[in-house]
Amino acid sequence: MVEQKARILLVDDEENCLRALKDVFDLEDIECIPANNGLKALDLFSHNDFDIVITDVRMPGISGIDILRQVKRLRPETHVIILTGYGSIHDAVASIKMGAYQYILKPVIMDELLTLIKDILSRIEQESSASPLQGLKEPLPSGKTILGQSVRLQNVAKLISKIANTDLPVIILGESGTGKELAATAIHHTSDRAGKPFVAINCAAFPDTLLESELFGYEKGAFTDARSSKTGRIEEADGGTLFLDEIGDMKPAMQAKMLRVLEEQEFQRLGSNKSRKVDIRIISATNRDLRLAIHEKAFRADLYYRLNAVSITMPPLREIPEDIPLLANHFAREFASRFGRSTVQVDKEAMECLKRYNWPGNVREMANAIRRAVALSDGKLIRIFDLPPHLVQEQTAAQEAEPDTSKSLLLDDIEREHILKVLEITSGNKSEAAQILGIHRDTLLRKLKKYGVE
Asked: Residue 449 contacts by C-beta under 8 Å, 6 or more apart in sequence?
């Protein structure tokens, strides 16, 4: 048995091989996502985190070598195993030079493959035993540390260490509350720009005209209320990092101006014809599907490709439950210190409740829940009745609800109820709901129409 659970993307155009390998991985309790062609594989890889990619070399269309190249471009820390027949050994050897971890000859000997996966997981564990963000130029600001022992968060931290000094634009993807700004802060403080400004702006918080003046600044007299000149965020970030949060909410006219900043490293204040040079690194973040926004003509493709030199995906809390105890006790200590209380920890029953909850608001929601619990606790332990009532009530209701065995549950009914629950969590935001469900927004719209949901 493989000791540590891995998440694997398995790519092969031979359905029999794909099915046989997946059956073995299922028996070994290894999470395996299959893809029968390169296009589907790259789409899955861009929307999910994988520890290992196993791919055949010779496939029609996008080959295994193409997949290797894209995987290493998007997430260099991902381990890639190449499957090859005798006729393509030359390609397999070449893939090692491109960064593949190893290649295995077909037909696959499963013991050999499982041993290789064990070696990879052992290496991941050894690499993560030390803090992946050691050697910072300066300590991260208080409360700005990425915490997590899960493979996925450790991989995020390792990727940050690798790309921090490259000056490449970075786009950070993830649901609201997953810590996208924490990741941006860590990139800045791990880089050579650590001693320079880190300037953040939420693009969704300003109307179009105000966002432009906030970013670019303005000269005296540029508009009616411009009684004096003002430095914009771009200029404030000179020498350092500009973090554009919720970049998906930026309107196309502003996107064109930001594209010039990226390409030319220069800008003009409002009301001025003078171009000003700046030296900034741009990190952006969004919880939206920008590729869908491009399709809908709401986001410029050329800006997306400039921003997306490296992408980092922050996992939702429900997908890294092993990190919940660490985070919960960290927040308990932090808020106890802020409130001038003695050390507070989460007791066993309350911790089990936290681990069972779905956390639609992710880490931000957990921080707020623990802050409330610390304030209400009357001792050194957070007990279940100190937690927000909805956490406990939701799980109690789920446990007390017994299925009606007199009725057969139809798959469509289950799917409809699940979609409605996700839409409730996202307050009706269909794009966000589609992301959580792991389907395209168009697919979600078709299902809503099918089930008569308005």
From this structure: none
88 close to 119: Cβ distance less than 8 angstroms: no
The interaxial angle of helices 430-437 and 441-450, nearest 10 deg, is: 100
pLDDT digits (tens, 9 = 90+) for 134-149: 544 445 554 555 677 7
d(CA 171, CA 270): 27
Residue 420 falls inside a structural domain = yes
Q: Are residues 118 and 193 in the same domain?
A: no
DSSP 363-427: HHHHHHHHHHHHHH--SSEE-GGGS-HHHHHHHHHHHH----TTSPPPHHHHHHHHHHHHHHHTT
DSSP single-letter state for residue 282: E
The model's pLDDT over 91-131, given as tens digits with 9 standing for 90+, comes to 767 777 778 888 888 888 888 888 888 888 877 665 554 44
Instruction: Specify the pLDDT at position 397.
Output: 53
Q: Are 119 and 2 in contact (CB under 8 A)?
A: no
Q: Decide: 211 and 203 in contact? Cβ < 8 Å.
A: yes
Please say whether the beta carbons of 302 and 258 come within 8 A: no
Structural domain for 349, as ranges:
317-399
